[in-house]
Amino acid sequence: MVDRLVNSEANARRIAMVENCFGSSGQPLAEQGRVLVGEGVLTKMCRKKPKARQFFLFNDILVYGNIVINKKKYNKQHVIPLEEVKLESLKDEGQYRNGWLIRTASKSFAVYAATATEKEEWMAHIEKCIEDLLRKSGKQPPSEHAAVWVPDNEAAICMHCKKTQFTVLNRRHHCRKCGSVVCGPCSSKRWVLRGQSDKPLRVCLQCYDDLTRERARVPPLAQPAAHTPHTAAVKSALDTAGSGGDSSADDDSDDDDDRAPADHSHDEPKFYGDGEKTEETNNHSSKETK
Prior knowledge:
Blueprint: H1 2-5, H2 9-22, E1 36-45, E2 50-58, E3 61-69, E4 73-81, E5 86-89, E6 99-103, E7 108-112, H3 116-137, E8 173-174, E9 181-182, E10 189-192, E11 200-203, H4 205-217, H5 232-241, E12 270-271, H6 279-289
Antiparallel strand pairs: 1-2, 1-7, 1-12, 2-3, 3-4, 5-6, 6-7, 8-9, 10-11
């Protein structure tokens, strides 16, 4: 079905509508061979709290953004190549139901659908797109993925020292290696995590020790020079971050400047599959009846 929709006028119109909804804040999405497979609202687990996000599934990328005006305007566009994605189903727990993890080398996060059926539909369509992409490219799925950040409200005290209580002055930070919520002193080290950034990132003391031991076991010739933790770049990053700032928000930009849509009603996700009549099919049928 995807192959049949590649050159359809209906597909081109849908992609153009997505581009228009993001406006100048988004990047162009129309490319040769790209198909909009489905769209809908999912609840994304953000750093501070779960928030509704509009998702668009294409045959090669997954796009999501903040909802400014439902079905009319979105911002903070994020584009994720599907070749880098791995899905992992989550068990229902309390109020968090119908969820799964979207894992990539640079960022991983949890999303939740409104119903079990919608979760099944989303995961099946995403998995099918990933499978088709990898089969056509001959590539292997990535073996390493970024940690999923623990939400702020799940940690009243530092998850490393188990002592520091978070207050207005003692702010929360996230270890980029394990995703734990930690205090400033317990995350004072930096390390270059290649899949996430070329710059040194905040890591907790436990992960720093683990990375240091792992580095010691690797032959010197195989070690990237940028992994040296005590460099001028690291000092600059530490000075910029400061002891009182919370750098966690820097890597979770869609968690900021959030405006809830005026319409909170739930619309089921829409997938453009074999059950849908394309414009070409409708035109062909109408010609036959004349």
